[in-house]
Amino acid sequence: MGETKKTTIVLFSGDYDKVMAAYIIANGAAAYDHEVTIFHTFWGLNALRKDEPIQADKNFIEKMFGWMMPRGANKMGLSKMNFAGFGPKMIKDVMKKHNAMPLPDLIELAKEQDVKLVACQMTVDLLGLRQEEIMDGVEFAGVAAYLADAEDGNVNLFI
Amino acid sequence: MGETKKTTIVLFSGDYDKVMAAYIIANGAAAYDHEVTIFHTFWGLNALRKDEPIQADKNFIEKMFGWMMPRGANKMGLSKMNFAGFGPKMIKDVMKKHNAMPLPDLIELAKEQDVKLVACQMTVDLLGLRQEEIMDGVEFAGVAAYLADAEDGNVNLFI
Amino acid sequence: MGETKKTTIVLFSGDYDKVMAAYIIANGAAAYDHEVTIFHTFWGLNALRKDEPIQADKNFIEKMFGWMMPRGANKMGLSKMNFAGFGPKMIKDVMKKHNAMPLPDLIELAKEQDVKLVACQMTVDLLGLRQEEIMDGVEFAGVAAYLADAEDGNVNLFI
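Output (structure tokens, whole complex):
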């Protein structure tokens, strides 16, 4: 019969290593024909930001959040041993040497595999992000949509 | 037939933003008629502390834990960009501006929606907290009670 | 009838307190006859390292990771209030006073209860760890093996 399995991840973290873990699990699950959703909330939202600065009309606090948060996955720090940005460089060098996919490629792969990427609308509003700052192909939704996916899920994770 | 769905969250973190995420998911799930439990362990226990100091007979180490840990959700720091307490202020200002519920209100709402709030007895003992330091309406239980809730759960998260 | 319940934990964190939470849940679940797997990835892998230094032929970056990461659970720091290593000492003292099991004993107990301990092969390679640096009785596997366990799981957690 084969009912489809479902994997639903809340990606709260904005650390390079944790985002990488989320996307590796998501891509693995998609490869095994799971229906996969990543719900990006709080700092995890930064994984979906375009890496060029976008002109937008923002107030002072929104500008501050915009400056201080990393623009896109590639600019994120590590959860451990970040060493002012040296840690991510070490990890990226090592990944390159082992032919492991860097994070932006993992995100691209997830899109190609039809992983549903969702941005938490409440966080977008709170942090003053604009829709045009978020990469294409992302849906905007709230906790109700997350729960609708998660409540029938086989693998539910909060990362 | 409509069997009741279950959401069970282990709240380990004592960061304002993560606790907020936990309570937003919990309140959402309760609104969708899930049976919801939040099991507060380690630093997550601090979300349940009363915000006034409570007189209690404690030894030196217990007093130190008591002083160093935040008394209640409102005094917690952020997991990222805490900036010596300025980050939480920014977040709270922004939430107010967007009419988002501050964390203490989210906890009150959870109680009103009959979300079961559990304090991990082992952590209470380890950190030397006293039952009178914990807000009313909280159950005290251990990992066995958590597993009994979680093993039939639809949405299980560790935050 | 009694179909076996399953608990599957991704242990990403290398913090003493979080690793302890993972093993307490795992041991509890095993005591309730769950089939339990802990999949150690990224910093969580350090919980499985032998505590003596192992001679191995490594390049410079691999040596740096080897030096900087804790050798075994007992050398890990706390996720909060680490205070340059004083925090873990406080926690360990308090656990001793309450006759709570220290982390290395929790790991031993997990082995005795047949909790399946898995080391993420990709992380082992990336961090340049050698199989002889990992404690005995550990399996090496990838995200596919994790998903096979998790997709039928009752309790799935990312810690």
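The radius of gyration of chain C is 16 Å.
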